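To start, an entry.
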Amino acid sequence: MNRYKTEEARARQNARAGKTPAESAELDQQETLQASIYELARTIHIERFPEEYDHYYDSIADASDRTSGINPMSKEYIERVTAKRKKEGVSPLAENGLPTANDTWEIVLAEAERQLQPK
């Protein structure tokens, strides 16, 4: 087990120390719900804001351009994405095509919580 997983397991165990089985089960349920919310939010984010993942597919030259502050995407694509983001009410991408704020994540997280929270 790597250090992160070890620390995560230790924190999980400490959170349950001195708890009744029912309280531990409630914590398990909350953690499961939270994990489901984050998983759904990530899926929604990828579907609604795929432009924030464009840099994953950069060639070496494209990555170098982004590092220099140049967006390697076509002008038409940049304009289309800018208009879409403005319509959605989120911050525009930086000159290099990377996100500058977490506002899109906050939107999809709230949407995922609405979809999965028990009523």
Notes: The chain has a mean pLDDT of 92. The longest helix spans residues 21-48. DSSP finds five helices and no strands in the chain. The helical segments are 3-16, 21-48, 60-67, 75-88, 103-116.
